[in-house]
Specification:
single chain; 261 residues; mainly beta
């Protein structure tokens, strides 16, 4: 079977008018298994390989059709594995939150299918199910005490931190990159396209800005983690990833790619 790659999910996020602007995001997937009218399996691609695998199955039943949707994390790094590695004492809470989000989305899929086919089959699908392989926390997380602007070892990614209405915010700029940013928000009349930020309890967003970032005061070495409240930023050779360990929202930026969620 030929593997097909496509944009499997699209969405948008919003932010305050001066601090962050609305932008669109997308997820790239590869369809890896198809059994016509019976089973479909696809991989969600992250910066470091396969972030998750999803499946959708349809099975005939005596009184209609049984619909089953499932998901499995890994083996590549995702926001969930980074969060557990940085705060292993919150593993149960982090996993429970993600499972709840997945179940809500699966139930929404079920209701959409029912609304389109119920008039024909007069059959309500069985409840959605979730299966998950527990990610293993990465041992030996190295916390770096950083309290101000910092940069990646290459100097190509520069970040700053600040308080926003009592919530920690991390904002990072990728000086040189080959990826194309989301379309500029109509509300943004300033600079756009190379800065992403994450505020506690909020989604990662592209920033609309008019000022330079402060000069870095520290370098976050590869393999090190800096924490700012519930947000942790990890420096790797592929870039910098910042994650809100309480909500699971994150951004991952490098010269070659960006990812927000």
């Amino acid at each position: 079977m030929k593997v097909r790659r496509a944009h499997c999910d699209r969405g948008s996020s919003g932010g305050s008018s001066e601090r962050a602007a609305r932008f669109e995001w997308e997820t790239v997937c590869e369809v890896v298994e198809v059994e016509d009218q019976r089973r479909w399996v696809w991989n969600v691609l992250g910066i470091e390989g396969i972030a998750a695998t999803w499946g959708f199955e349809v099975e005939p039943a005596s009184d209609g059709v049984l619909i089953r949707q499932w998901a499995r994390l890994g083996p590549g790094t995702s926001g969930l594995t980074i969060g557990i590695a940085n705060q292993p004492n919150k593993e149960a809470r982090i996993v429970a939150r993600r499972l709840s989000e997945w179940l809500q989305n699966m139930q929404a899929n079920r209701e959409w299918i029912r609304s389109h086919v119920e008039t024909v089959t007069v059959t309500a699908p069985a409840p959605a199910t979730v299966t998950i392989t527990q990610p293993k926390a990465t041992p030996g997380v190295n916390i770096e005490p950083i309290n101000g602007p910092f940069q990646s070892p290459s100097g190509n990614i520069r970040c700053t931190t600040f308080d926003s209405d009592g919530r920690n915010t991390v904002r990072c700029e990728v000086v040189e990159h080959v990826w194309q940013a989301p379309p500029r928000s109509p509300d943004c009349q300033l600079n756009w396209g190379d800065r992403v930020e994450l505020t506690e309890d909020g989604a990662a967003v592209f920033s609309c800005y008019g000022q330079n970032l402060p000069d870095p005061q520290a370098t976050l070495d590869y393999g090190k983690v800096a924490t700012f409240g519930s947000i942790s930023c990890t420096s790797e050779t592929v870039g910098i990833m910042c994650l809100d360990n309480d909500t699971g929202h994150f951004f991952n930026v490098s010269r070659d790619a960006y990812q927000v969620g």
